């Protein structure tokens, strides 16, 4: 059996087709995969675990069923759903991971991350990210009424769309020097991430080492599943 990786589904009640695709995918893989890793932005926005969105209940139950069937689900927070918390973890039986997590993937030391921290050329975004990830800011935000948080999330989505329209594609992609720095920092030979919506598998030679960076696609356009197993190696597939 293979270990599977997905990211950037950006689930939202107004886009039910992506949720339906995920439900079929989770049904197919449960008990038939070693594990599933979701590397951020499972949701378009997450204003707190206390948000009772009916459209997400089938997703929560399907995630839990995966783990109960023997396919554990691990989850990284992304730049859209960074306020996922312990209540969500309990309800779904998903294991929440640190934003940079290393695993032993069939003998290969592997780094998992969402990918936004690699986009260091986008200085405006990095400054915003530091503010949004501040524990004090998150605690204050979670104390606000739910309706106010939902309005804040909608405003943030609109501002993000406007910001992206005005930026060069190169700025929003990873910085290659930062990629190599992170490879060295974590002493890994395989890196898996999403965020950039540019799926691909990149072979890198650096200081006598052969490295590999696998990038996952977003499910609204070219959704992809990274499948890794000892026999077939690393490959991108359709969900």
Question: How would you describe this protein?
Answer:
- The protein has 239 residues and is α/β, with parallel strands linked by helices.
- The chain has a single domain, classed as Metallo-dependent phosphatases (Purple Acid Phosphatase, chain A, domain 2).
- Helices cover 36% and strands 23% of the residues.
- It contains 8 helices and 11 strands.
- The chain is globular and about 55 Å long.
- The chain starts with a strand and ends with a strand.
- The relative contact order is 0.18.
- The mean pLDDT is 93.
In summary, what is this structure?
The chain has 8 helices and 11 strands. With 239 residues, it is α/β, with parallel strands linked by helices.
What is the fold's blueprint, element by element?
Layout: E1 3-6, H1 16-29, E2 35-39, H2 57-68, E3 73-76, H3 86-92, E4 95-96, E5 100-105, E6 108-113, H4 123-132, H5 135-142, H6 146-165, H7 169-172, H8 176-186, E7 190-193, E8 200-206, E9 209-215, E10 225-229, E11 233-237
Parallel strand pairs: 1-2, 2-3, 3-4, 6-7, 7-9
Antiparallel strand pairs: 1-10, 5-6, 8-9, 10-11
Helix pairs in contact: 1-2
